Structures are given as structure tokens and as C-alpha cells.
Amino acid sequence: MVPKEAFVCTHFNACFDCIAVVPSGTPVNVRVTWSSSTAANVSWEPPRLADQNGLIRRYVLVLTDKRSPESNRTVSTTAMFYMFDQLKEYHPYALSVAAETISVGLHYLLNFNTLEDSELFPLMCLSYINLYRF
Question: Measured between alpha carbons, how far is 101 from 83 in angstroms, rounded to an integer?
């Protein structure tokens, strides 16, 4: 459900002709590659134009340690890439990426494990779940 403040109302605050202005789609082509066993490079493309619902101001990324879900890193960026460093080697993480106009839209979720030093890289994500709203 889109929050009420994410609508632009054109009739004296009565929402007869309301237009959603938060992204209704997720970023696409989200990829994770590694520069080391403790650093993940994330890249993505904007949501489809029809799903942007306004000017994308920034992207919000949330990286969660799946073994300690209470500890996470949240970052905002205007770029379409970000590098998370100081990760734990051979460790499971969950990552969400969302576009923001006046508010954050749908999150693209994926799960991945960092590598051991002996593994070859770059590799892509192991699994993903799309269209999740926080």
C-alpha cells in the first residue's frame, strides 16, 4: 500500500484525482560482484520509466547481516553503484535497493554470500526476491 503522503491531490486535499508519486517499480538489473572476499560492489539501473512516477532523487540500500539481523547498514546515493566493504568472509547477507522520488518505493531484495579468499570472482547474486515494500 502506498502511503497517503505519497499522492499529489488536485482538488483541495480531496483525493479524487490522485497520482502516485513514489516509484511503483524496483531498480532493475541489480548485480553484486566482488573486489575481494570482504567487499561487495553493487550496481543497478533505474526502475522502468513507466514505474518511476517522478524524478528519481536517490537510491536507498540496506545491507543486513543474516546472522545478526539487528545490525544493518543503510546508505543513500545518487549514483547507480555502491561498494560495501569490511564485510565478513564467507558470510550470508541480504541486500535491498530502492529508488526514491518524494518517498522510497518498492525494494528489490537479494541474498548473497561473500566469498572465501580462495574462490574465483566476480560472481553474481545467489537469489533474489522482487517487489517488497518496507
Answer: 23
